[in-house]
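Hello support,

Our group uses your service weekly, and this is the first time we've seen a run hang past the timeout. The protein is DUF1788 domain-containing protein. I'm not sure whether the cause is the sequence or the server load. Input pasted verbatim:
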Amino acid sequence: MMSIQERLDAILPKIMSPTFRDSKGMGNEVGYHIFDYDPIHEMLVQDHILYMKEQVNGKRNGLTIREFDLYEVTIEILVQKGYLQKNFNMEKKKGSDFVLNATQKVLRLTLNNDLVIEYIANRIQPNDIVFLTGVGKVFPIIRSHTILNNIHKAVDQLPVVMFFPGQYDGQTLMLFNELKDDNYYRAFPLIDYR
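Update from on-call engineer: The timeout came from a worker crash unrelated to the input. Re-ran successfully.
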């Protein structure tokens, strides 16, 4: 069984491989990948993502790792729409469940004009490798399977790697190793444990 450091060290060679960028999913779309990890390793994973971006971005290889922290994206959208402070005030008056539902409606999750997907679509370039992070921070506002099921609207020709604090067995997403997010079948485990 590979250690977390061995798995992290295996990411960069894998994503730099031309076969990784040309891999196809089950529906012949560019492959989606999930790097699952024990949530206790969150800071180690974040540091390694920063390291990989430093190693790849701005180099002569023409590739860019484009990271989208889903929590930060959500906050930025709420600020742009003028809803962040309104959400704080609403939560005091009506509670967290009300704000959760209102925020999901503002983001238009799963609709054709999903603001998170639109945000990503407007910021990617042809030679990008898309990293999705912040999955644990943004839960339960955004569920990982929701993003994975809808990101093809924005990213249909680029490889996507979701960094998932929990377990993914090729079918089921288990956030924080405890919360069953949902089944998702189209993503490949990026680096297997074995």
